[in-house]
Amino acid sequence: MSQDNSVVRLEDYIPTPYSIDHVSLTVRLDPLETFVTSTLSIAPREGGSEEAALTLDGDDLVFVSARLNGDVLEDSAYSASDEQFILKNPPQEAFTLELVTKLAPQKNTQLMGLYRSNGAYCTQCEAEGFRRITYFYDRPDVLSVYDVRIEAPVEVKYLLANGNLVDSGTMSTPEGYPEDQLWHYACWQDPFPKPSYLFALVAGDLARVEDRFVTRSGRDITLHIYVEHGKEDRVDHAMDSLKRSMKWDEDVFDREYDLDIFMIVAVSDFNMGAMENKGLNVFNDKYVLAKPETATDTDYALIEGVIAHEYFHNWTGNRITCRDWFQLCLKEGLTVFRDQEFSSDMRSRPVKRISDVQQLRARQFPEDSGPLAHQVRPEVYSEINNFYTSTVYEKGAEVCRMLETLLGKEGFKAGLDLYFDRFDGQAVTIEDFIASFEEACSVDLSQFALWYRQAGTPDLVATYSYDAAREQLSLSIEQSCPPTPGQPTKKVMHIPVRFGLVGRDGSPVGFTSVIDANSGQEIGKSDCTVLEIRERQHKFILTGVSKDAIPSLLRGFSAPVHLRTNLTHDDYLCLMGHDTDPFNRWEAAQFILMDHLVQQTRALQAGANTSSHALDDSILEALKACLMDDSLEHAFRAQLLQLPIESDVGREIGHDVDPDAIHRARESLRHALSTALGDSLIDLYKALDDKDTSFRSDASSAGRRALRNGLLDLALARKEEAISDLAVAHYHNATNMTDRFAALASLTRNEMPAANALLDAFHAEFTNDALVIDKWLSLQASAPQEETLQRVKDLLSHPSFSMNNPNRVRSLIGAFAMNNQVQFNRKDGEGFKLVADIIIELDKSNPQTAARLANNFRSWKALEPDRQGQAKKELLRIANTESLSKDVADIANRCLQ
Ligand code: 0A1
Ligand code: ZN
């Protein structure tokens, strides 16, 4: 197994001995010979160790020359390799160091540093990509002011970098280029000191869409979105999302934009979603481009969220940044929280919350319960790129939300205001962040801070009982947290549990006071909505409870925990029908369905046939009542229709998982529901047909489409020809991608014979539209049938697929590994083998994307023994591959530990 002991530890943090206050970069662009001249203004830090060598980071660099204060350096004064530049005896006062490096962006397949995407030059520097451009202290606590001059032939039309444009024009052709080739240049200045990971440069013959935004203090900001030629008609939604984000950040967080211009560039080759470079955000074009004929409602919502996320980073990440990469959640958790709040305000709050919790459960919970579990603020890493995880992002956001729940909206705002005031222009830590809230609200958050330091999803077990004679409801909550790698035992956490009471007849029930039975103190009156669990076994008594009531716990999913209760099936049915908290109505339905699926799966594993557990009539009635309830939002009703996903059922079962049995159980539940709901599904489907063919992308129109498509999908579970015909008609009559793709997906997933011809027709219609083809690839890879494995193998050599483009790889292989539990986890091991083969191949050109694929092995230890054996064999094969990247080795080795 490849061994790599070069780990970085939080406890080893020390500041650099020198500061780099100013960086002046000249970049002469060329596909194979780009020259970067970097002039650094360096000074020893006060209190730094005297005469320490200056050691700058590099990665895959070709060194050209070095000058100190303008003079060429003697060979003995420095050493330069592809990975480091060392100035052996730097002056002990301020000095300038000029370093020249040579790059070949055309050959950069890792998509880190300076690379080319469809002919345009672009950069990606987070986390450690700047060192692939020039030697630098490539770490977030070194903040510098940047001036950038870009030079290129005039065909490279736009020359962009961070900050404000200060000069541009034509220049004489540099030596070595044909004399008749015209060259131009542009100079950019970014007045805000920033870490190197926020540097960006983009240059190319792109199309530009222009708009403007006037800030609340009256400053006029130019907005530019750059896309490939021909895509200009897909930018409106992104531009509109940007303007709404700018306004919302002013209204809700008092944050105003600070430069004169804000630019977004959409590129088709990008390892992640998007990047918040100061004033020059670079996006995976998937999160910019949308028009109704090619993008679904989900795409529209994602674009709005990602545009907002990157824009919000301007304050949470850029103006205040991270001291070191261990603090990544400082910017990411908070910024995800902010983008989730924005989307909640733009759309439906309960619907957004439900979909965020679905995501958290589908991605973060499996991470937290397997070998890759880590803290929200990790303390050791070997490859930082592998820590852009759901735990850092989504659980990090949940921690911010819990803070808001505990401190109240006003307290939370006061803490954040203090944070912005105090740390603007600095690189800080989670401790600084927490201290702002402690100080602003005069509270002690030391126990709460464990959320950053302890990995694993806490288990809560809540037990309630009602004493009619005393009119008291007692509630006992026990917490525990399972062991995670490196953390066998856990301390007791501080957990906010939002709650309320619901009468058995559905009426809300009040109480007079809340007593903490552990201390005997009264802690709240009738308006108390949050219980703060701070002890391993924490008991509360609600007094003045006039009638038998059901506690509705963890409303709005007030903490990222796994909750079990002694609520009965009937209690959950009552909550499902009547809870005033919409999240918990949905959650009650999920609980009942999950319970059924777990039992059914166990029975199947024990040899029963598929129909062993009939679905209780009361569940059907309750579900039907919600579905038909016109007072509920369409989008919410669509969410009620979604059964728990297969990987969630697997996690609930926890060990000896058999994905085939889960799939069969879920399919039989879908069939039973579909049969029992009968014609009512199709009746409602028809009633929801909006004859108005003009497309509106707003949340309510999207909700109507979601419900209608969900009904059609469930109806198809019956596999009847008439319904298949209806779905085919739905496909042909669709005026937008949401409806069209929903029909195609339902026919494919439900294995209807009509699907194949439509898949071909769909491909023929959208051959030249890569983002639509991604949907086509991922749909086929997600289909649970036996033949999918071969189909995925065949698609690898399809002209529409390319191993060089991360979106294509994620759509085909990522979707197979992530969304296809049955085929990825095949008992014969062929699913694991296919994904392992791709990881090994892709690792040679793009280790970061390969490592992301490898993450899909994270739940292998919960599988039944045969499948475990197959998964382990492939993980070992990956780990033993020669010249494996650090990225993939790290994931494979941690999975195997
Ligand atoms: N900071 C970005 C995420 C990001 C991280 C690394 C990247 O390079 C490979 C790119 C983007 C965000 O949170 O949006
Ligand atoms: Zn981010």
Automatic annotation (TrEMBL):
Residues 24-198 form the Aminopeptidase N-like N-terminal domain. InterPro entries: Aminopeptidase_N-like_N (IPR045357), Aminopeptidase_N-like_N_sf (IPR042097), PepN_Ig-like_sf (IPR038438), Peptidase_M1 (IPR001930), Peptidase_M1_dom (IPR014782), Peptidase_M1_pepN (IPR012779), Peptidase_M1_pepN_C (IPR024601), Peptidase_M1_pepN_C_sf (IPR037144). SUPFAM superfamilies: Leukotriene A4 hydrolase N-terminal domain (SSF63737), Metalloproteases ('zincins'), catalytic domain (SSF55486). Its EC number is 3.4.11.2. Signal peptide: none annotated. Gene3D superfamilies: 2.60.40.1840, 3.30.2010.30, Neutral Protease Domain 2 (1.10.390.10), Peptidase M1, alanyl aminopeptidase, C-terminal domain (1.25.50.10), tricorn interacting facor f3 domain (2.60.40.1730). Keywords: Aminopeptidase, Hydrolase, Metal-binding, Metalloprotease, Protease, Zinc. The keyword Protease applies. Belongs to the peptidase M1 family. This is Aminopeptidase N.
